[in-house]
Amino acid sequence: MPKKPAMLSIERFHEAAKDATEPLAETGITHSFDTEIKAGKDDRSLIFTISTASVDRMGDTIAVDGWKLDNYRKNPVVLWGHDAESLPVARASKVWVEDKKLKAETEFTPLGMARFNDTIFDMLKGKFLNATSVGFQPLKYAFTDDPQRRFGIDFMEQELLEFSIVSVPANPEALIEARSAGIDVGPMIDAYVEQIIKASEGEKLTTILDKLAAKCGMAIVSKERIERIERAATAQRIKSARDRRTRELELVRFKSY
Known about the structure:
- It is built from 7 helices and 11 strands.
- The chain has 257 residues and is of the alpha/beta class.
- The chain has a domain at 6-184.
- A hairpin with a 5-residue loop joins strand 3 (37-39) and strand 4.
- The radius of gyration is 27 Å and the shape is elongated.
- 24% of the residues are buried.
């Protein structure tokens, strides 16, 4: 079985390639795109544009006619967030090049087979998700000579390893809007928690959440502490009301003399 290449984000690949003395071998790249999504041949299929030849934000291009698709077609899984350890959310029944775009028609699992997959499908159809990311192994590439694309890379030949549905750019409001639209977002939240735990290297979940909250200028407070604060605040309000009533009564008595 061929060795699976180590996967790098396009940003990390740039950093490694600039310092490399020869082309990076056995290296895969993940690259995200805002994608075009159209209805497929039935009610559980969608057609994605997963790559084009356009210059991206890093100044890179990926040649559409340079895609090698044969190996991917043997196992055309569609993942969530490049998570190869979890079950796929769909399969690509067809992958092809058309109008200088790499396209994929995907078939999602039947309704009710996998709750998480149903959530992804509903969020795509509702336009709460609109990004995909290709995982590929560069076979032939070079830094461009175009002064307008300094350090940009032209990928001339590349093998498609997989493609994923992703939430890029990250948009927490999408979950809120999807829930308001009646979509079951519980599986999505569970998946995010699992990803955080996997990346935490064994830290307790409370420690992870505390760190995330601190980065956002917030703090995690336990339910018990909130209840104690509420009880104390309620007691203070009652005491203040009693004190105010006592002063009002004393004022009335004073005026009656």
